[in-house]
Amino acid sequence: MNSIAKIMETMEYGPSVEDSGAVREWLAGHPRWGHFIGGKFTKPGKGFDTIDPATGEVLAHISQGTVGDVTAAVRAARRAQPGWAKLSGHERARFIYAIARTIQKRERFLSVLETMDNGKPIRESRDIDIPLVVRHFYHHAGWAELRDSEFPDHAPLGVCGQIIPWNFPLLMLAWKIAPALAAGNTVVLKPAEYTPLTALAFAEICAAVGLPAGVVNIVTGDGETGAALVDAKVDKIAFTGSTEVGRAIRAATAGSGKRLTLELGGKSPFVVMPDADLDAAVEGVVDSIWFNQGQVCCAGSRILVAEQVADAFETRLRHRLSHLRMGPPLDKSTDIGAIVHPVQKARIEAIVAEGIAAGAELVGGETGDGCFIAPGYLKNITPANPAMAQEIFGPIATLSSFRNADEAVELANNTRYGLAASVWSESAAVATDIAAQIRAGVVWVNCANLFDAAAPFGGMRESGFGREGGRVGMLDYLAPPPVKPAKAADAGRLSAMPHEGASAGGIGIDRTPKLYIGGAQKRPDGGASYEVKGGLVPFGNRKDIRNAVEAAAKSVKWAGMGGHGRAQVLYYIAENLSARAEDFARLTSKPEVDAAIRRCFHYAAQADKFDGRAVHAKAGHVTLVLPEPWGVMGVICPEEAPLAGFLSLVLPAIAMGNNVVALPSQQGALAVTELYQVFDTSDLPGGVVNIVTGPHADLAKTLAQHDEVAAIWSTPAQRRLVEAENVGNLKATWTPAPRDWLGPQAQGVEFLDHAVQWKTVWQPYGA
Ligand code: NAI
To answer: Which residues form the Aldehyde dehydrogenase domain (predicted)?
Structure first.
């Protein structure tokens, strides 16, 4: 007989299956789906079945979107956009609010549908996914209401193409659609081929609340439909998915003028310090990698534990692992549901097998019939093991240890990704010290996988760029206040000639200016110069760029100097520039020198004021949204206004703590070479500003390809090249619109916004 004690020990439950009657009735009424275009569903076309991965049951037939379907949807969105943007913020807010409210009323239905289409446990879709969807629409109804006062003179981008994955189908839809609509854009969204059903149910909700036709369009299909959307006449592409497809989209949109945000893969570290609360940390692992079967881009998939507590931690982890229940996703007591699709299951198995072949030992992780894989982890795994580097995207973590805090940080950052991290320590000083050193867009201190509409989410490095959520997420759907356009000047072709000094056989005094690298004047590698008005300047080459990037990467003091310290240097530059104003005016003009000095004052002022904020996203936590420098930035300067244009770009970048490799105006470079002395006498640490003169096209290519460069600002002339060449490490790129570089529109927060990446740090607060 079962005693209560025995029940408590075994924790055996009877089945407690959520009722799927309403969903089944709905599916029976909709066996075949078309697309949702211009407020109506199209006639279903050729396509594929979407299945319940837990049972293999066919749920519905889905249409494969063709180029024609995508074009029709983009047209409908284009037609609807001016009307939607013309509504007042309040009117848009009412629609978004109505969407939130309707989803809230249909929470149970949508949770069941999501679980059936995706395989995730009902507990998760009911308690996490759908409530977060509702929260996202409410939050963005608020941004619609406040757009004009919070983002004065900003405008919507137009039509946004949005492509989402299958791991959080309706939540990813909400992350994409809510901010886009709040800003005044219209959208064409393509859900993932494995999980289109909640997007189609969402289309019904749009129709039910009377959203104007064409504001939201849903086109279903696979990667080909996605690629057609990328190529369509849209103003922005927002993508969440694999890094591989992210790269393809970067290449496909290069030079097209489309705005782009990418939220890609991860291999996020989960760091357990020696003084961590081990039981809490083990629960953190459950929330990290065994949440949603590990199919989470920000899953804490690399568990790194302090050597001193590694055994104790693993004992607890194994115990907890043995109590996780894998089973039917609709059962309310299921912890681990089904993997989304057999293809994905095979992919997970292949990576785990590779890991085992390379010497790792698998604990748990047995594969079941159908789409089931039990939770587990790989131990005795070396950093070189492929399973340690690749995103497994399944319920299998890696477990390894570290000796001290420095090694923890080194291992945590030993990845090409930078999406998220989780840090566990009972000492606030230790936890925040580690959190500050980890290069990731989101860091959770003593918590894991928390999300909120007010807390920006997004990656660094190969995890992509752009943020979703909160104020900074809104900026990715808005165009900055318009500038008075100015035509970008063209330098024409430059031709290299032997260096003056070299031609004099080393006897004469070499008065040709040099490059400025690591705080010193350096001869160009090729020993050549080119002619500009007023003299000769070095003809830099790709080796010079590499040296400059190396010098910039090595100079680590600057970011740590703080806003005040950097402001002091900028004021000092202004002072030294003023002292030599006449020399500079001879090379440029007096108004240009005045503008250059104003830039120094402006960014000295901003250095300690352009800052982040704290948001109270969840009770018991404070979420810090912090601007962080990119690290090494490449800056290609405008041809016109050589001095003011150069400083208008370089100063905001360095004010935020970046080190810069700058390519000055090709024809106006002489004036910039005069700055070397100003920098030398202004306490600017060597390596913060590096200057390579020469042909932009050649130099920009090397700069864009270099993996140490994290972000690059381009000119319109180099934009296509820079965007096409940066696919290696997926640099963030920005091309400021040509403007009067002497005027007030050449300075301000627009520049600072692009000089930082946002890091969201979740901390316990008042818990
Ligand atoms: P995927 O990147 O191929 O699919 C994501 C979305 O992009 C889907 O809607 C898909 O139809 C679309 N797509 C595919 N090729 C496209 C193209 N050339 N142009 C435009 N859109 C395209 O991801 P997949 O194959 O489903 O999963 C493979 C791996 O990607 C996973 O194992 C995981 O490692 C990673 N992944 C990461 C996600 C994240 O949230 N960061 C989400 C899904 C997958």
So the answer is: 46-478, 537-713
